[in-house]
């Protein structure tokens, strides 16, 4: 490389800051071609090229030997992974039927997590799904995608290669509302991901993003009540300091799905001691605030709609994030008193909070933000409040003298000192009078407006 490029380029290339800036500005397509030039180029470009990878899960994603060998070679460069698996007709699981009687068979899932050097031999010597009869039925009636999603050892091997992983993103869009109480192949994949993270040495993983997920996903990602969980499973997830959740909306009227809301509350309780940054968004219609579910009336009374009526009398513990600094919730319905209570409870740690597209059922924002006055000792924070309003925009003609422009404006609006109420008829009349004052580009713009400027 030095003989071909010269000493000048060699000095430039060996300067770390200059080289990294150059490589960071190249698109991935160019980086892929750049690696083919020579060995040194390949070594320098690999960390940037494989820093972010996307996994669109298929039946052979973690089982193809060549693909897994490649992941072993580049896995130490990966810092962010996006795992995507959409809900489709292929992920739907029909009832499991007995081949002899035709009756529906209950399938109690217990993840097979045995990882040995000869995993193929161990899977043949031991039934994967509890018994040989159940394994035979599942192999014959369910698609290969199901068996790939339930292949926990393959997930563990894949995540074990990502020893420098810092950010895990999971995206499972497309679930229909009528399927919310049914388990699909996507849910089995989430179980495998959770177990793989818990049993891999991912010491740098501190950011988790659940993007476009269904409400039931948190049941399978919760290590406390999840399948195949170990006593120390929750310890791994308590290292997460940045959590982002974008969840399909759970309508709370007229009959809120209380079990789903309890699952969300229980999942957030897992991160109470570690979170510093938290973002939550409901997709679709507005939902209840996930930060104050313990204060919702529908979750405090005994309800026959819950799946576990014997435990309905147990009150939810309030969420208290000990290290929370930045918080954002979006598309929620909440009471002013609930916001006030949350701010008061986190006044010692919180630095910034953002309520986007929030509707107050009871009270107003002055009541909701009352703790800010007590914390700061004054009402100066109100002086920094931003007021948002719609402001009309009038484009003035280019090249028109100031005096004529003022005359045209007065004529447009039929100006009256006491009342400034321009009507559509006045706009039409003004357009007919002053058509010649507008250049061509303004005429083209106004022809596309809702008014008749022709």
Can you tell me about this structure?
This protein is of the alpha/beta class and 454 residues long. The protein has helices at residues 2-13, 16-24, 28-34, 39-49, 65-74, 119-125, 132-141, 144-149, 152-160, 185-198, 217-221, 233-237, 258-269, 336-345, 365-368, 370-376, 402-413, 424-433, 440-447, and strands at 52-56, 80-84, 167-171, 207-213, 242-248, 277-283, 287-288, 326-334, 352-360. Strands 1, 2, 3, 4, 5, 6, 7, 8 and 9 form a nine-stranded parallel sheet that branches. Helix 9 crosses helix 10 (185-198).
Quick summary:
By secondary structure, the chain is α/β, with parallel strands linked by helices.
Question: What labels describe this entry?
Answer:
single chain, 454 residues, alpha/beta, 19 helices, 9 strands, 37% helix, disordered C terminus
Strand and helix map with partners:
Blueprint: H1 2-13, H2 16-24, H3 28-34, H4 39-49, E1 52-56, H5 65-74, E2 80-84, H6 119-125, H7 132-141, H8 144-149, H9 152-160, E3 167-171, H10 185-198, E4 207-213, H11 217-221, H12 233-237, E5 242-248, H13 258-269, E6 277-283, E7 287-288, E8 326-334, H14 336-345, E9 352-360, H15 365-368, H16 370-376, H17 402-413, H18 424-433, H19 440-447
Parallel strand pairs: 1-2, 2-3, 3-4, 4-5, 5-6, 6-8, 7-8, 8-9
Helix pairs in contact: 3-4, 9-10, 17-18
């Amino acid at each position: 490389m030095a003989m071909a490029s010269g000493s000048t380029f060699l000095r430039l290339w060996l300067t770390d800051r200059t080289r990294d800036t150059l490589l960071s500005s190249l698109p991935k397509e160019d980086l892929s071609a750049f690696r083919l030039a020579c060995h040194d180029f390949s070594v320098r470009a690999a960390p940037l090229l494989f820093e972010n990878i996307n996994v669109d899960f298929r039946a052979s994603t973690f089982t193809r030997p060549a693909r897994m060998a490649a992941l072993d070679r580049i896995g130490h460069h990966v810092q962010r992974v996006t795992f995507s698996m959409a809900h489709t007709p292929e992920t739907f699981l029909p009832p499991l039927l007995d081949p002899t009687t035709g009756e529906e068979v209950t399938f109690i899932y217990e993840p097979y997590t045995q990882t040995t050097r000869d995993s193929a031999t161990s899977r043949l010597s031991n039934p994967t799904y509890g018994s040989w009869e159940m394994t035979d039925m599942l192999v014959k009636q369910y698609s290969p995608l199901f068996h790939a999603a339930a292949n926990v050892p393959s997930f563990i091997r894949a995540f074990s290669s990502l020893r420098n992983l810092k950010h895990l993103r999971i995206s499972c869009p497309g679930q229909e509302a009528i399927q919310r109480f049914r388990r699909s192949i996507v849910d089995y994949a989430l179980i495998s991901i959770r177990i793989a993270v818990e049993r891999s040495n991912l010491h740098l993983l501190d950011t988790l993003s659940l993007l476009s997920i269904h409400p039931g996903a948190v049941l399978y990602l919760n290590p406390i009540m999840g399948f195949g969980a170990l006593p120390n499973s929750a310890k791994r997830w308590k290292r997460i300091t940045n959590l982002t959740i974008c969840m399909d909306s759970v309508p709370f009227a007229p009959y809120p799905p209380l079990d789903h809301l309890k699952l969300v509350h229980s999942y957030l309780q897992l991160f109470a001691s570690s979170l510093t940054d938290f973002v939550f968004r409901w997709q679709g219609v507005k939902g209840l605030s996930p930060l104050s579910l313990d204060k919702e009336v529908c979750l405090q009374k005994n309800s026959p709609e819950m799946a576990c009526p014997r435990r309905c009398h147990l009150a939810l513990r309030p969420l208290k994030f000990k290290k929370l600094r930045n918080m954002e919730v979006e598309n929620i319905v909440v009471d002013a008193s609930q916001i006030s209570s949350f701010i008061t409870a986190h006044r010692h740690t919180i630095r910034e909070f953002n309520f986007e597209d929030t509707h107050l059922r009871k009270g107003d924002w002055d009541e909701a933000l009352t703790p800010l006055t007590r914390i700061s000792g004054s009402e100066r924070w109100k002086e920094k409040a931003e007021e948002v309003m719609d402001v009309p925009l009038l484009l003035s003609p280019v090249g028109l003298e100031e005096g004529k422009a003022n005359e045209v404006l007065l004529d447009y609006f039929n100006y009256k000192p006491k009342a400034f109420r321009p009507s559509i008829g006045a706009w039409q009349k003004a357009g007919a009078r002053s058509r010649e004052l507008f250049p061509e580009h303004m005429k083209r713009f106004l022809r596309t407006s809702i008014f008749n400027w022709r």
